[in-house]
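Troubleshooting: if your tokenizer reports a length mismatch, compare your output against this known-good record of 263 residues.
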Amino acid sequence: MALVSAHPPIRHKETGLTRLSQAVGPLAGSSNLPLYQQLQRALREAIDRRILDADDALPPERDLAGEFGVSRITVRKAIDGLVSEGLLMRRQGSGTFVRGRVEKNFSMLTSFSEDMRARGRNPRSDWLKRSSGTVTPEEALSLRSSPGTPVFRFHRLRFADDAPMSVEYATIVAACLPSLDAVESSLYQALEHTGNRPVRALQRLRAVLLTPEQADLLCAKPGDAGLLVERLGFLHDGRAVEFSQSYYRGDTYDFVAELSAAP
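Known-good structure output:
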């Protein structure tokens, strides 16, 4: 997988702030929405219409405040909300940028952390739950294991540059890890340390609607379009060791695969 620079070149529109303000128009003084929400909506529309494109630098806060006739506090509050939504990202010392969609190569067996680092992004996780138990009927069928097989379950919210990217529910055969605490930041790294990292996997991708809980975690709305990726990972000897379900916002991820004609 090709590496991408951590800081893509800054691109500014030729007509800059003037084109942005002309495209979205003035904020409506008669609107019932607070000014910061009006500005959020204007910037969101500019991103949707590609007036502000992926990796474009947002105009400075003072320029936005002057152009739209609002305070810098209002501008900052609007931008903070779009950063939380994952539409914008801040780079220390560089400014605020439109976040591009993430491309995931569906034909390569890599971890979330590896994918993000390969794109110059900083991955991290918030733990939602760690638990141990025995396989459920669904897990036993997926992992091709006997009833009563011990497993570890890891539920995490995955971030890239502090923007929530996916909610991940992973079940691992307990014999592959020394303990629940063996997993720190990367599940695959912990499995690699014990010689049990999957070497091949079956993956299924399907469209879903985000539940209220998933939407809240991903800064989306209940019922928004999402993507579910199910992965079943195998060792060299054919044993299944990992069954995971990862839910992504539909507007932040693109899954790609290289195809070739059959011989």
